[in-house]
Amino acid sequence: MGSNGSGPNGGQPIPLNVLGAPLSECSSDPVTGFFRNGRCDTGPSDFGSHTVCAQVTAEFLEFSKKAGNDLSSPRPQFGFPGLQPGDCWCVCAPRWQEALEAGFACPVRLDATHIGALQHIDLEDLRAHTLNE
User: pLDDT tens across 18-30, in order?
Assistant: First the structure.
């Protein structure tokens, strides 16, 4: 695989994580990702940069709700079950950064966090909140 991340993915570049390796799945239960493929893939239409694979906490969910993004309430019309503490979810990188600054950052999985998150978050901040698996 070349340094640009291109490879045997139907001619498409292989998405990379923040460590420079192929992006791992974040969650299939519930199915997460901007494209609902279980991974924190991103693209030009993902204006929110849903690139951080986070294990949400009650504190993060409450912070996000107060910031205008209720992730804990089910939205069946969108196939969204609502998140519970402990669920993994592709959260918006700017929102995770806001939570970090407010003291509510939740743990992240570096192997499943898209390299695009680094446009909004320092790698060292992500490393400091790495989920112990």
Answer: 999 999 999 999 9
The CATH number that applies at residue 44 is 3.30.56.110
Q: DSSP assignment of 24-90, as one string?
A: PP--BTTB-STTSSSS----TT-TT-EEEEEE--HHHHHHHHHTT---SS-BGGGTB----TT-EEE
What is the distance between the alpha carbons of residues 80 and 15, in angstroms, rounded to a whole number? 24
Q: 77 in a domain, yes or no?
A: yes
For 106-130, the pLDDT digits (tens) are 999 999 999 999 999 999 999 999 9
Which amino acid, 44?
A: P
Instruction: State which residues form the domain around 44.
Output: 16-133
Q: Count how many domains the chain has.
A: 1
